[in-house]
């Protein structure tokens, strides 16, 4: 069982004892009798500790514990508060009234059910219930403005189910009912009419302010001003035709701003006419037509503004139209809840607020408590804020939170609840701050402070300051210039973690354990390449929270469910056959070779036709058995049967089994719900999307995930809030990946909550929240914060474009949107805020570690550090060589001796390739070891003789193999990007060399690039690069990768294989080229009969090709089949000593001695 890492934010200090003395700023708050009080407590400053100590003081001074109401966001936090009070006060601590916001509402509604017009037997709708109801009511939506697809193929977030699942809680958290929406939005026909209004405005702009002339004159500008007057009159006519209630009121306001813009633009053209006619502002005459939608894209001279005025109005009206459809679904959802006697989490607060509107009930309820304490107040939403107001008497309110950690606005939290809104509600508010941080080193805090310093709407000016030795720390912030490709950046991160775990970095002061490290991602997709890289490196990791859904094992189980729900889903069924049953590639190819449905082929094809019939039969039997149970078993029982019948968990890694436990829990929750949905493709998509969906659920966002002490934790930044780790890695720090989130219904929600559609730039608000997310991520780190990112390419400024200031001058001050749009250039911000003593780990920490001789181990069940592990292993080795190694009692290790006996009929699966056949032509034993057993190579330096892992280059540095690998990867990446110049290729090679640990091969690879561009082949069009293939020949499957297929200037297709070797190959004798010709017959519609080598090594530059006739192809096919037969029967006993033994990776075997004798 994994354990949660306890945050120092909760206890005050990592060195805290039971009798810890509060710091002076904490003591001031504890001793104060001023109410209401707002405490803005920075990350790691012990806010919960301070609040608990203040409650202790009240109790010690005579306040009964049950006269204090404490509200938190999670049951764990409420229980923790009670436990701390019990430790200090004894059994009296149990009496404190500590609840979550939803739990106190549930208790009130249970007690006053009849006053609240509720059936006291109501249930709380689970997430499963909510999905089931939403899926059920989709048929009641009119789909006038939305697509009926449950999950849109263009993106899960666009489907009707996902829209409705997001829309309902967003409206409820702001207290907006279906009735209020219907009143505001009006009739669908009126919404459609608004589309026509925008079209008429744009047509008027096209008529009055879009001109055909290109050179402005004073007379023409006068005409433009007259045209703006005419446009203004046309807009005024449209405005006056609108109704005076609901949405029409906000559209009228918008039109008024459009009219004011006409006046502002006319003033600009008049005041700066000379600069427009004779100076640098000539493009300004195009600005009116662009802003009013008469151009489809910015005309020459107009920079990227980020919006047009008619476009903004169209977006708002479009969202209102979609909301009209969703409101029908929202109303149907509410009816279903009522029919099933259910309340969802948001309903609990809404109904409790309505209950407390009754003055008699409110007086009775509030008379139970003298004080109300609220934790994490920055995360409350509109209805929760109103609840707290209703529960407080005599202003005896204490709220604690951190406006700098307000990161849940995207799901309804309102940062102003701890800011201006709280100040307005409680005029005599006392403010205190906590700024002493117990957690992080000062360089980390300096960067965290600077990240927020320039926020114009920040509610406080507090700065975090470390205490004790951490204040004087000189290390803490490490930057890594991230590689361009996510996979390469993931390798850099893996390199860094590997070094930290081995104690092999000058940037760290000690050796870390895996459980000391956390990787915090902004988006779920950022985790995938990191997961793959850690797996390859053998670094243990734990996916925390909803990231478990990204697990390969979980995805395979979901694919099985999806295939059962829809047997025609061949993508899912193929995944099941490949990942669970491990069908041979040839068998997968056979099943997919016909036009018949895959399931029919699986059922009807005789077993003897398959390479591995027992696997196919197991897949067929299991799937058909489960398919028979699908329509009779409940969802949860079918899931249990699936795991039992397929023994799925036996085929998952330990990590994947841990990840699957979260899916187990989710599906088990459907047993507890009031409604159990049927198995369907849509339901499985819901499971796949669960993490994304539940992020908008009221009770889930603050739940802390379990973490693993023996593995690197990977989680989203939002899930990490409240946790801390010695080392935190933050990947993908680029402007594109940290762009502010867009929220579809913000303007509508704002308008329905009393705001104006034109008084807020929500993009800027979202950018502020993104900065706070970064601040939260930074402050999770205790000792090292490793930042991995890169600057965006950006767009070059066109000197002929109008300056932004000119465009801003043409807009009324009441227009809230920023010219140029809003972005968060996070890496540039980090670079500008870095502390003086930061470390750059790009060329050190992020490079691969030389693992030769690195030893890790365990002894008697305990993990050994590298030093003791090395000594113990060497001690065992010496005992083995001396012949006095102690025998081991089999009963002490849990492995029966018979389990080590050889199998009666051992079978080894063989995968053939050109490389393996080439090896066979040299030595059968080497083929058997390298391509059948995948045997270990000799350790470097052990009986190596003259051996290296590959032939060294003439430079004596990198091997030919390493140079070839770097060149081939560069060529592949260049083809993907369309890079066509030596400079672009060299830049790619440099990036790859850094991330692959091949910097020592870079110079030689650059020489290869230079030779390539001296070849005629560099001028050929690359049709495909690094094309993988699987070829079936006489029952054998052979795999490979074709370097490139090119088209020459004479329109001839040529297969090319790049060679960085020191020798040329025979075009007539080698089997590689004919094998590729045969493969291309399967890959392409037209046969390719020309193939050859592009020599980029020391024997180049040169391109040598040959043509293949049909007779050549048939002859080559026979030779390939003959070689495959031989490869299928190679063994350890067959070997050929010779010159090649000098370079063999198995030189320590006796056969190498025979070569030396020869």
Quick overview of this protein structure:
It is built from 45 helices and 25 strands. The protein has 1158 residues and is α/β, with parallel strands linked by helices. It folds into five domains: 8-120 and 344-438, Rossmann fold; 142-338, no CATH class; 472-540 and 709-795 and 812-840, P-loop containing nucleotide triphosphate hydrolases (Rossmann fold, 3-Layer(aba) Sandwich); 546-694, PCRA, domain 4 (Orthogonal Bundle); 960-1142, Alpha-Beta Complex (Lambda Exonuclease, Chain A).
Description of the molecule:
With 1158 residues, the chain is of the alpha/beta class. Helix content is 46%, strand content 11%. It is built from 45 helices and 25 strands. The strands form six sheets. It has a seven-stranded parallel sheet. A six-stranded parallel sheet has the order 3-2-6-7-1-8. Helix 3 packs across helix 4. About 5% of the residues have low confidence.
Strand tally: 25
Query: Mean of the pLDDT scores?
Result: 84
CATH class of the largest domain: Alpha Beta
Could you give me the name of the CATH homologous superfamily of the largest domain? P-loop containing nucleotide triphosphate hydrolases
Catalytic activity: ATP + H2O = ADP + phosphate + H(+); Couples ATP hydrolysis with the unwinding of duplex DNA by translocating in the 3'-5' direction
Domain UvrD-like helicase C-terminal: 442-722
Region (Disordered): 1-33
Keywords: ATP-binding, DNA damage, DNA repair, DNA-binding, Exonuclease, Helicase, Hydrolase, Isomerase, Nuclease, Nucleotide-binding
């Amino acid at each position: 069982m994994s354990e949660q890492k306890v945050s120092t934010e909760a206890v005050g200090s990592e060195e805290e004892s039971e009798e810890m003395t509060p710091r002076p700023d904490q003591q001031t708050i504890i001793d104060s009798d001023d109410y209401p009080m707002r405490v803005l407590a920075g990350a790691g400053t012990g806010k919960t500790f301070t609040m608990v100590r203040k409650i202790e003081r009240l109790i010690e001074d005579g306040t009964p514990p049950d006269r204090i109401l404490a509200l938190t966001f999670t049951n764990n936090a409420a229980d923790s508060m009670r436990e701390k009070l019990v430790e200090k006060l004894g059994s009296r601590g149990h009496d404190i009234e500590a609840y979550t916001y939803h739990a106190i509402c549930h208790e009130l509604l249970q007690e006053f059910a009849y006053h609240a017009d509720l059936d006291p037997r109501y249930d709380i709708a689970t997430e499963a219930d909510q999905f089931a109801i939403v899926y059920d009511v989709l048929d009641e939506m009119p789909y006038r403005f939305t697509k009926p697809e449950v999950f849109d193929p263009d993106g899960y977030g666009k489907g009707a189910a996902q829209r409705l699942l997001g829309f309902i809680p967003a409206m409820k958290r702001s207290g907006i009912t279906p009735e209020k929406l219907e009143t505001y939005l009006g009739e669908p026909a009126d919404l459609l009419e608004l589309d026509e209004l925008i079209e008429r405005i744009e047509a008027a702009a096209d008529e009055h302010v879009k001109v055909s002339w290109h050179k402005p004159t004073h007379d023409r500008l006068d005409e433009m001003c007259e045209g703006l007057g005419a446009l203004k009159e046309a807009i005024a006519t449209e405005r006056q035709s609108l109704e005076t209630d609901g949405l029409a009121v906000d559209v009228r306001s918008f039109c008024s701003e459009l009219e004011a813009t006409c006046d502002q633009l006319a003033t600009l053209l008049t005041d700066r006419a000379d600069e427009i006619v004779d100076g640098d502002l000539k493009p300004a005459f195009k600005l009116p037509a662009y802003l009013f939608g008469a151009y489809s894209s910015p005309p020459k001279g107009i920079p990227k503004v980020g919006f047009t005025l008619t476009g903004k109005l169209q977006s708002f009206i479009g969202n209102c139209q979609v909301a009209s459809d969703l409101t029908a679904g929202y109303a149907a959802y509410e009816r279903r809840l009522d029919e099933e006697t259910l309340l969802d989490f948001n309903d609990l607060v809404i109904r409790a607020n309505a209950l407390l509107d009754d003055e008699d009930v409110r007086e009775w309820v509030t008379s139970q408590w003298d004080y109300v304490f609220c934790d994490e107040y920055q995360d409350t939403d509109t209805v929760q804020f109103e609840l707290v107001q209703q529960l407080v008497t005599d202003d005896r309110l204490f709220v604690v939170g951190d406006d700098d950690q307000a990161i849940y606005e995207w799901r309804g939290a309102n940062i102003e609840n701890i800011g201006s809104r709280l100040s307005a509600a409680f005029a005599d508010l006392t403010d205190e701050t906590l700024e002493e941080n117990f957690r992080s080193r000062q360089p980390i805090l300096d960067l965290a402070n600077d990240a927020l310093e320039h926020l114009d709407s920040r509610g406080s000016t507090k700065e975090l300051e470390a205490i004790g030795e951490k204040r004087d720390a000189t290390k803490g912030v490490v930057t890594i210039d991230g590689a361009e490709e996510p996979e390469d950046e993931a390798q850099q991160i893996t390199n860094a973690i590997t070094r930290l775990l081995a104690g092999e970095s000058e940037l760290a002061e000690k050796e870390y354990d895996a459980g000391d490290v956390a990787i915090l991602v902004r988006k779920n997709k950022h985790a995938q390449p990191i997961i793959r890289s850690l797996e390859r490196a053998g670094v243990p990791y734990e996916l925390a929270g909803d990231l478990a859904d990204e697990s390969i094992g979980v995805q395979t189980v979901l694919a099985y469910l999806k295939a059962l729900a829809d047997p025609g889903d061949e993508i899912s069924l193929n995944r099941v056959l490949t990942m669970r049953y491990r069908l041979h590639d040839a068998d997968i190819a056979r099943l997919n070779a016909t036009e018949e449905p895959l399931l029919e082929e699986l059922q009807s094809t005789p077993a003897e036709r398959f390479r591995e019939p027992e696997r196919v039969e197991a897949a067929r039997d299991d799937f058909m058995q489960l398919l028979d149970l699908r329509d009779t078993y409940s969802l949860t029982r079918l899931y249990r049967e699936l795991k039992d019948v397929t023994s799925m968990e036996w085929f998952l890694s330990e990590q994947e089994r841990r990840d699957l436990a979260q899916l187990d829990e989710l599906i088990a929750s459907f047993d507890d719900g009031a409604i159990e949905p049927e198995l369907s493709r849509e339901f499985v998509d819901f499971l796949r999307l669960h993490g994304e969906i539940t992020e908008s659920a009221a009770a889930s966002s603050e739940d802390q995930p379990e973490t693993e002490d023996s593995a690197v934790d990977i989680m989203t930044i939002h899930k990490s809030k409240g946790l801390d780790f010695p080392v935190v890695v933050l990947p993908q720090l680029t402007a594109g990946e940290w762009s502010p989130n867009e929220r579809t219904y913000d303007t509508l929600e704002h308008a329905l909550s009393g705001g104006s559609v034109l008084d807020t730039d929500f993009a800027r608000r979202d950018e502020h929240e993104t900065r706070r997310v970064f601040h939260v991520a930074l402050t999770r780190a205790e000792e090292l914060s490793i930042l991995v990112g890169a600057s965006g390419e950006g767009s070059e400024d066109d000197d002929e474009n109008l300056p932004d200031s000119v465009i801003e001058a043409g807009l009324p001050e009441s227009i809230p949107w920023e010219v140029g749009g809003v972005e968060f250039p996070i890496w540039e911000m980090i670079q500008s805020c870095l502390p003086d003593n930061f470390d750059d780990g790009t060329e050190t920490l992020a490079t691969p570690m030389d693992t030769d001789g690195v030893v890790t181990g365990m002894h008697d069940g305990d993990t050994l550090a590298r030093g003791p592990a090395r000594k113990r292993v060497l001690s065992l080795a010496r005992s083995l060589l001396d012949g006095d190694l102690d025998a081991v009692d089999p009963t002490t290790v849990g492995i029966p001796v018979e389990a080590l006996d050889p199998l009666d009929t051992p079978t080894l699966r063989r995968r053939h390739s050109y490389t393996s056949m080439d090896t066979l032509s040299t030595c059968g034993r080497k083929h058997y070891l390298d391509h059948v057993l995948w045997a270990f190579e000799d350790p470097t330096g052990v009986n190596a003789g003259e051996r290296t892992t590959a032939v060294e280059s003439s430079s004596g540095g990198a091997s030919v193999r390493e140079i070839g690998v770097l060149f081939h990867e560069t060529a592949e990446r260049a083809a993907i990007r369309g890079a066509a110049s030596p400079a672009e290729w060299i830049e790619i090679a440099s990036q790859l060399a850094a991330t692959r640990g091949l910097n020592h091969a870079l110079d030689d690879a650059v020489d290869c690039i230079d030779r390539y561009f001296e070849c005629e082949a560099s001028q050929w069009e690359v049709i495909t690069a690094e094309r993988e293939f699987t070829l079936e020949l006489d029952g054998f499957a052979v795999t490979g990768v074709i370097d490139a297929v090119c088209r020459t200037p004479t329109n001839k297709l040529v297969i090319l294989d790049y060679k960085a070797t020191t020798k040329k190959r025979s075009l007539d004798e080698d089997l590689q080229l004919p094998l590729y010709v045969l493969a291309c017959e399967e890959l392409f519609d037209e046969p390719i009969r020309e193939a050859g080598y592009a020599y980029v090594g020391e024997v180049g530059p040169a391109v040598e090709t040959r043509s293949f006739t049909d007779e050549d192809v048939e002859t080559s096919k026979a030779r390939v089949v003959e070689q495959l037969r031989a490869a299928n029967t190679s063994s350890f006993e067959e070997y050929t000593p010779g010159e090649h033994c000098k370079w063999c990776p198995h030189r320590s075997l006796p056969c190498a001695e025979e070569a030396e004798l020869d």
